[in-house]
């Protein structure tokens, strides 16, 4: 199950730390100026997800970089083009003559369009762009616990929204039979995951087809989490949001403006309270959390935004 935590205080730029149950690494979504993001958070991070590189979403990358130097691992950074050149430019703004070549390396996964991802690696001390591959995929990141899909929203530039999807888990309920556990359980799980129903499985000297034992498997659906940042509140964006986030368990969504300032929202290609709540309701999202408010607002204004969002997300019956 995903355990997201806001690391930015009210009045700071947005940043969210993502962790999972029984999973050591952390993941950072958005690199805004976030005072609650700790050194340990940064050092435990294995991937960073950036919606776009406006200053309020990327300025804190320098601090994250500072804390990650010396961890001796590869960290993935995902975001829209031209992220590779922008990350390199930030890093090369500093002098690296005393750094160990194995102190850190960054694999940048740059989203070119809805299906095209360019991968490059940056390594100290020279941080040259090393091309890895360009691939066609709607999945920007995956590991043994979850995968991440994306869609590019219109913010007058592409702004990437991410869907984190935990993999389903399986367990064998032997109480439904008289069979005893053994190595065959692992074989059965693998056959179920790959839908290899004709796999032969030996249990205590008797051979079964895998499909004959599938009834013993209980499936637990994986969790889902959405991160939807800056986007214009128009039909084209809402169509993309519905396509990816319908039925999502939890979504953090930008509410940059309150409803009375919707003209400013339209001019600046942002969403506002009522529209963000409305699209989350139409998506059937179980829990929607409004975030990323304009810094011109005080606490009373933000309370108004949240109230407008909640009223639109869960309208009175």
- Percentage of residues in strands: 25-35%
User: Whole-number radius of gyration?
Assistant: 22 Å
Compute the number of helices: 10
General shape? globular
Distance between the termini: 31 Å
Query: Uncertain spans, ≥5 residues at pLDDT below 50?
Result: none
Going by helix content, strand content and strand pairing, the class is alpha/beta
Which CATH top level class of one domain fits?
Answer: Alpha Beta
CATH superfamily of one domain: Ribonuclease Z/Hydroxyacylglutathione hydrolase-like
The CATH topology of one domain corresponds to Metallo-beta-lactamase, Chain A
- Describe the biggest sheet? 8 strands, mixed
Topology order in helix (H) and strand (E) letters: EEEHEHHEHEEEEEEEHEEHEEHEHHEH
The CATH architecture category of one domain equals 4-Layer Sandwich
């Amino acid at each position: 199950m995903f355990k997201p935590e806001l690391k930015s205080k009210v009045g700071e730029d947005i940043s969210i730390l993502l962790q999972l149950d029984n999973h050591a690494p952390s993941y950072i979504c958005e690199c805004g100026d976030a005072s609650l993001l700790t050194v340990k958070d940064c050092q435990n991070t294995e991937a960073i997800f950036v919606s776009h590189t406006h200053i309020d979403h990327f300025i804190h990358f320098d601090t994250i970089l500072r804390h990650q130097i010396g961890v001796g691992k590869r960290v993935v950074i995902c975001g829209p083009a031209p992220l590779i050149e922008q990350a390199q430019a930030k890093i090369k703004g500093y002098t690296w003559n005393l750094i160990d070549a194995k102190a850190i390396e960054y694999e940048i996964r740059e989203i070119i369009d809805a299906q095209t991802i360019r991968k490059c690696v940056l390594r100290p001390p020279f941080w040259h762009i090393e091309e890895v591959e360009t691939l066609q995929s709607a999945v920007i990141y995956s590991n043994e616990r979850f995968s991440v899909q994306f869609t590019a929203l219109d913010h007058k530039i592409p702004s990437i929204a991410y869907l984190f999807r935990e993999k389903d888990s399986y367990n064998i309920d032997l109480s439904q039979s008289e069979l005893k556990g053994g190595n065959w359980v692992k074989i059965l799980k693998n056959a179920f995951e790959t839908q290899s129903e004709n796999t032969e499985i030996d249990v205590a000297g008797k051979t079964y087809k895998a499909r004959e034992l599938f009834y013993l498997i209980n499936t637990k659906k994986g969790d889902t989490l959405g991160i939807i940042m800056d986007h214009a509140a128009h039909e084209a964006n809402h169509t993309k949001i519905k396509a990816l986030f319908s039925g999502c368990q939890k979504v953090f969504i930008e509410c940059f403006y309150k409803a009375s300032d919707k003209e400013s929202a339209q001019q600046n290609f942002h969403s506002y309270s009522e529209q963000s709540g409305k699209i989350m309701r139409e998506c059937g999202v179980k829990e929607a959390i409004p975030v990323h408010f304009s810094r011109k607002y005080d606490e009373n204004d933000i309370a108004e935004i949240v109230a407008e969002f909640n009223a639109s997300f869960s309208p009175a019956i």
